[in-house]
Fold:
Amino acid sequence: MKKYSIVLLFLFFVFTAFKTNKPVYLLFNEKGKKVKYEKMVRQMEEADIVLFGELHNNAIAHWLQLELTKNLYELKDSNLMLGAEMFESDNQLILDEYFGGLISQTRFEAEVRLWNNYKTDYKPLVEFARENELRFVATNIPRRYASLVNSKGFEGLEELSDEAKTFLPPLPVLYDPELPAYKNMLNMEGMGSHVNENFPKAQAIKDATMAHFILENWQPGKLLIHYHGAYHSDNFEGIYWYLKQQNPDLNIVTITTVSQKDISELTEKNTGKADFTICVDEDMTTTY
Structure:
């Protein structure tokens, strides 16, 4: 019942926005200028990889993820691929078995480590890919190994078995502690004793793993759209940085999602984070 209440509230906001000419979101380019959705899609048509950074509980971002995926499928057909932070690399086999019709939806959802908001926010993407026979890549590091890095640093990964290492990028992992995304994590407020020199490394191993499995599955001529939290690609760092380290010639388009009280123009801190920014009214309902 809660899921349907969220959907109804979302539709209320959207239709009210249309009626009053008060949009619930606007799109901006890297320079902070308003752009039309169609222009964003045209630019992505020529890309190798699209990095879609979301706010995990943002209803507009999730709606646009599905709409954009549908539009890109119309343009790319079987040359479209999907990938997501929300699925860990050791679950790829289960995803493949579900897409191949070997296991039921019930069995799939019971055995994969799904996020709590899977049914409202990510299931539509998974089912769209399955129905259209598109590759869906589980890119994230198994969370137990991210925790290992948080406690022991990258050195902890060397202790894993050869089988376990197949779920990781090649070791040792490249790491630049001076990148602002990682450096700023050491000064995050409210984290207390959780912040130590390994804290940003745990973030970096997620970024490196996602980049690794994106590239392991991507092929020239294909377009892979990847869904993840915005921090993983904001300011052209994180996944983007790792992808470019391995293949500088990749044509990558990034999207981020922000929330503001006034969406008529981007604030200074929200400008320049990505090629395209989805700016959502902060009063928009969330999915959790």
Q: What stands out?
A: The domain at 25-281 is CATH 3.40.50.11550 (Rossmann fold). The CA atoms of residues 137 and 169 lie 15 Å apart. The chain has one domain: 25-281. The longest strand covers residues 80-88.
